[in-house]
Amino acid sequence: MGAGKTTVGRQLAAELGKTFHDTDHEIERRTGVNIALIFEIEGEAGFRAREAQVVEQLTQLSNVVLATGGGAVLDAESRGHLARRGVVVYLHGQPKDLWNRTRHDKSRPLLQDTDPLEKLQSLYRQRDPLYREIADIVVDTGRQSARTLLLQLLPQVRERCKLSA
Length: 165
Description:
There is one protein chain. By secondary structure, the chain is mainly alpha-helical. The longest helix has 24 residues, at about 35-60. It has helices at about 5-15, 25-30, 35-60, 75-85, 95-100, 115-135, 145-165; strands at about 20, 65, 90, 135-140. The chain has a two-stranded parallel sheet with strand order 1-2. Strands 3-4 form a two-stranded parallel sheet. It has 7 helices and 4 strands. It has one domain: P-loop containing nucleotide triphosphate hydrolases (Rossmann fold, 3-Layer(aba) Sandwich), CATH 3.40.50.300.
């Protein structure tokens, strides 16, 4: 959460002439409600089931850049689809930086916690190894702008896309 997946993904797609998709936005489009409401009604398990289905479907498309929700890597099948069907970029952020970016955002259900920073640290400990397991490219987000991240990513993604073609 807060690493810049949607922002950088959208810019990357534009630079590469590909179609951009975001799993969270796709889930909201399909259900007609926001992610927070899905969490409220179905819980995290219900949301993750929807997310896994969307990842499975969107990773079958060609010429796309796909931004997944932060927890998409929790599902082993989703990790497999991502790893086998595309070039995976992990926008790595330290929990403190992610907290600084998300602390005023009330639309993130997992951060509606008594200690959001601790929640981010816990999520990081759980998810970081999973991201690294499937990542072809790891870029530290730090405090860089989305444009700076994009400029770092472009040559690496272009090279990986050539290798996988």
